[in-house]
Amino acid sequence: MSLATLQVIWFLLVMVLLTGYALLAGTDLGVGNLHLLTKPGQREANFNAVGPFWDSNQVWLVTFGGALFAAFPMVYATVFSGFYLALMLVLLAIIIRSVAIEFHHQLASRRWRKTWDLSFALGSILLSFLYGVAMGNLFRGLPLDETANFAGTFWGLLNPYALTVGLFSLAMFTLHGAAFLIARLDGAVAVKARLWAQQTCGILSLLFVGLTVWSYLEAPRLFVNFLTHPALLLIPLAGIGACIYFPYALKSKERWRPLIISAVMVASFLGIAGASLFPYLVPAFSGPGAGLTIFNASSSQQTLFRILIVALTGCPLVIFYTVYVYRKFKKEG
User: Which residues contact 41 (CB under 8 A, 6 or more apart)?
Assistant: First the structure.
């Protein structure tokens, strides 16, 4: 394989891993976002719904980080140095919500359970929001110096555009979590989840339209690939179609249909992100740096080929394990 071919393959693999994390971990994040809207007596059902899956979902995030480091080390260095404080907040959110899931049911004390209910909800909301903020800054571009190092500040990352993408991410995961509850649970929680999903779908659609216009004004380069290769328009069209059909899926007697449609939405939105950024991984917003692409920030040809062999061996195992877990625990408890 040529170096350029390997670079494109690894870009696709990194995006697949990120999309896999959004699809799978997005369910337990969304459940956490809705957790405090559930009555105290019904919250145990939320933990039971995500309990068999949440820890295996994190494998996709770890694999994504490892793949990014191995294939595009310069991108890993720039992003992790630029987003250092944000990533510490992400790590804190992951720890808080993970401990909450494991500790919530250990004691019957009301105060104990309220503490972990709050931790699970706040950790999920923060993680969902920061996921979007990070993506928003990548869409907009980062301030880079001549050596492609981050030259901005933490507060600069909290710009209005990135914060709005954070709200979009929060709504996207909340919708996905509500659809997951519909698929996994019966009774009052499932009924409420249908209402939450319907309301969130409207918010998500409005944010999508608004961000599309804003993105064109903020970073027109995000639309170049779609104009150059019209076939890529099938990706956003799939997302738009899923948004339009989702209210009808909610009326279906098939409990898993809303989750399938929300998964199409999530995959489409991540597909839009990948198609918009290509070949950039870290575009430059300001400064002398020209940005990091898959062509100027990758490992050597030999390294990319060797780790591709490892990936082609390991990724099927991760997929098999994920499918096994979801099939094994398809029905609640």
Answer: none
Question: Do residues 176 and 267 touch, judged by C-beta distance below 8 A?
Answer: no
In angstroms, the Cα distances linking 261 to 183, 201, 237, 267, 280 are: 12, 11, 13, 10, 29
What is the spatial distance between Cα 179 and Cα 92, in angstroms, rounded to a whole number?
26
CA distance 175 to 191: 14
Assigned token pair, 247: 């209210």
Distance in angstroms (rounded) separating the CA atoms of residues 61 and 18: 7
Please count the other Cβ atoms lying within 10 Å of the Cβ belonging to residue 130.
21
HSE toward the beta carbon, residue 72, CA cutoff 13 A: 28
Q: Is cis: bond before 279, omega within 30 of 0?
A: yes
Count of C-beta atoms within a 10 Å radius of residue 328: 9
- Cα separation of 4 and 125, whole Å? 39
Q: What are the φ/ψ torsions at residue 241 (nearest 5 degrees)?
A: -60, -40
Model pLDDT for residues 64-110, shown as the tens digit of each residue: 988 999 999 999 888 888 788 888 888 898 899 888 888 888 887 88
Please name the residues in contact with 165: beta carbons below 8 A apart, sequence gap of 6 or more: 132, 133, 135, 136, 139, 211
Is residue 19 within 8 A of residue 278, CB to CB? The reply is no
Which are the contacts of 127, defined by CB distance < 8 A and separation ≥ 6? 29, 90, 93, 94, 97
Tell me how far the alpha carbon of residue 276 is from its chain's centroid.
16
pLDDT at 311: 87
The reported pTM is 0.91
| Residues belonging to the chain | 333
Residues 50 and 44: their CA atoms lie apart, in Å, by: 10
Angle made by CA atoms 236, 11, 61, in degrees to the nearest 5: 85
- Cβ–Cβ < 8 Å for 319, 15: no
